[in-house]
Amino acid sequence: MRHYGLPEIIRVDHGTPFASNAWGGLLPLSVWWIEQGIRVELTRPGCPQDNGSHERSHRDMKAEVCSPASPNMKAQQKRFDRWRHEYHHDRPRESLGMLRPAEVYRPSSRRLGEQDKMRYPQGYQVKRVRDSGHISHCGSNFYLSEIYAGCNVGLFENLFGITELHYANLHLGNLEFNNKDSWRPKSVVIKPDKEPRAARPI
């Protein structure tokens, strides 16, 4: 990223090290991407066709460079380097009008470390996630996940009086208060009715 710049979007599947069962389906790597101003786009579970060109490049690479593998890592790396150059500089693509990827590629102008700090819309209450993965709100503690430690999340009370929990443009869940038992109040994050949805622009 320091050499080529930051992408606008990174599309990933639901496996490690990109996604998990935590709130928002993220892991530390994808959280870090978002902190850099990159939008993380998750494919549909079990649908490799959503990232078809990427999956095809993996298939071609395995067939042409890894079957059989080289006798040692140094030799294998040389094969990878040669294949990568050929794949981007020598092979025309129908999807690019028979141009080669290197002919149309341009580095990103977005530089690592130069992004503005994440901001939430007016009306959101911003909370910083503690190292334990908790936030405090209205006298209660809510556990998110340690993967959000040090991140700022946004709380928004919607028209139905429900406190929504957002991270960047993801609606992670809603805060549920139950203070009937003053000794053990139930304060948890519950999943929204639908999958995490885009929040208001940030």
Order of helices and strands: EHEHHHEEEEEEE
Radius of gyration, Cα only, in angstroms?
A: 22 Å
What sort of overall outline do the alpha carbons produce when their principal axes are compared? elongated
| Biggest sheet details | 5 strands, antiparallel
Termini Cα gap: 23 Å
Number of helices: 4
Strand content: 15-25%
CATH hierarchy: architecture of the largest domain: 2-Layer Sandwich
The count of strands amounts to: 9
* CATH H-level homologous superfamily name of the largest domain: Ribonuclease H-like superfamily/Ribonuclease H
Catalogue the unreliable spans.
195-202
Can you tell me the CATH class of the largest domain?
Answer: Alpha Beta
The percentage helix is 10-25%
How many domains, in number, for the residues? 2
Secondary-structure class: alpha+beta
CATH topology of the largest domain: Nucleotidyltransferase, domain 5
Biggest β-sheet: strands ordered side by side in the sheet? 3-6-7-8-9
Mean pLDDT: 85
Protein described:
- There is one protein chain.
- With 202 residues, the protein is α+β, with helices and mostly antiparallel strands.
- It has two domains: 96 residues, Nucleotidyltransferase, domain 5 (2-Layer Sandwich), CATH 3.30.420.10; 66 residues, no CATH class.
- 21% of the residues lie in helices and 22% in strands.
- The chain contains four helices and nine strands; from the N terminus they run βαβαααβββββββ.
- Strands 3-6-7-8-9 form a five-stranded antiparallel sheet, with no helix packed on it. A two-stranded parallel ribbon has the order 1-2. Strands 4-5 form a two-stranded antiparallel ribbon.
- The protein is elongated.
- The C terminus is likely disordered.
